[in-house]
Amino acid sequence: MPLYRPLAGLLLLPTLALADLPSFEPEPGQHAQVQQHGERYFLQQPDGSRLELSIPEGNDAEAPSFAVEDYDFDGHPDLAISVPAGMVNSAYHVYLYRPLLQRFEWLEMASTLMERVNCSWLSELQPNNEERALYSHCRSGPRWYYDAYRFDESGAPWLYKTLQVRHDYDPDAPVFFPVFEKTLDPQGRIIASRALDDDDQPLTWTVPAPRLYLHERPEENSRSKAYLIAGDVCEVLDQQGRWLQIRYVSRKGPLERWVSLDDAYAQAQP
Predict the structure, then answer these.
(1) CA-to-CA distance for 192 and 195, rounded, in angstroms?
(2) The pTM is what?
(3) Structural domain boundaries, residue 220
(4) Which residues, 6+ apart, have CB-to-CB distance to 55 below 8 Å?
(5) Lower CB count within 10 Å: N or C terminus of the chain?
């Protein structure tokens, strides 16, 4: 349950109009108030200090919008400032509440982190409470991309999920899956992967061969005795050249193995 409430009966909406600068309690008895002086904005902090807010770069003709939500999932509300950036994207700056300090601090995204993501700035933020992850969405061309962040014990963000687009299209490959969602651990290691369609739904692949052996690795010499048959439907987890990593749910439980596309489609030829 969030530890905050609006002051003086003001109903806080996810995005507030310019005339409704937020006034709220990040925790009981601690007050915060956004103030405007000319073209500058300040945050009156619970500890009595006043912090000048950094407005993201975007469309200069548009006034900033403010949102009060728990972006780092610590049970305390935080403050976000957004401005339109282009036709469909927005740029965000986030100020996280630090209860031990009784003040807000700007969420600075490390350059080494932002070099690895799709959205080069925080954009179209959506907290996902079930995953305890902060999703940032941006559109490039016809597709929306996303990156998701989690926060460590110190409150620092780390990359939890991201979309990876493959650019190694092989026109001779029988199938090609261009977009994969990668899940990472706090050390940056990929711990899960799955192919997605244009609507971010998991993709499947149907075995075309009468008998297709499963491999432990994307190598011929790693073939096991297990096999799939024509018509078996698998979730696509990864692709390396002419190899697919698949998940198949058998009667004994799910299997995650590799299959050779060359073998699959060579057998399928009439």
Answers:
(1) 11
(2) 0.86
(3) 204-268
(4) 41, 64, 81, 83, 93
(5) C
